[in-house]
């Protein structure tokens, strides 16, 4: 599989770096992969390699404020900045691979980005896959806390809110150690601006989900402490699509692609995609 790095100018002139993995076979389609909060696209090399088995070319951006891309670290003005950047990347994909089917995969915060984008552009997508998507606010969070979070996030977006729990990423200590040592991963507190963006997006999903009609795969670890598995169940229940698959993996933590059972999880993803990828 061949790999290359490139970039484009995103919203407000921000440099967005993205990776492209091209399989050593005739391409069958293109998949855009959206990573999660605080991380970056190169943590998905092994996922791209598996997707290449189906002949899929994989494009993956480092979201603004993440990894190698520009912008203040994990800073966000509006959630639409993320989806607008993804739209620019899809424009690049379409120009480079005219006529190829397009797929979208998102993990965690990237799952929220992918779902939001799919709801607006599903006519351009063949299918959507979500891994541990951050699509609801933690169960039991008081409404007043969410409202305060949105107000602070709007007027004081750089105020630090809370740290992500590294130990909750995976049950594999080697994965956690590598995560903690990765200079491209954000290890500080999450600022209020990005928290506001996530809350706002999550609040809008229930009313929008019945309009989602493309095939959807949802994969979530039952012991995920960073995103609530109830979010994946909500998408499965409310989506208007007649082709929705939900897989909850008993005992797995947040990064199901980096758990000891990652082969099972990735096999499920590949086998779900296979009949939907022409020529796979």
UniProtKB/TrEMBL annotation:
GO molecular function, one term: monoacylglycerol lipase activity
Keywords tagged on the record: Hydrolase
Segments forming a coiled coil: none
Signal peptide boundaries: none
Catalytic activity, as annotated: Hydrolyzes glycerol monoesters of long-chain fatty acids
Domain Serine aminopeptidase S33: 26-261
Keyword Hydrolase: yes
Keyword GTP-binding part of the UniProt annotation: no
Gene3D superfamilies membership: alpha/beta hydrolase (3.40.50.1820)
Origin superkingdom: Bacteria
UniProt-listed Enzyme Commission number(s): 3.1.1.23
PANTHER family to which the protein is assigned, alphabetical: PHOSPHOLIPASE-RELATED (PTHR11614)
Record family assignment: Belongs to the AB hydrolase superfamily.
Protein name stated in the entry: Monoacylglycerol lipase
Taxon lineage: Bacteria, Bacillati, Actinomycetota, Actinomycetes, Mycobacteriales
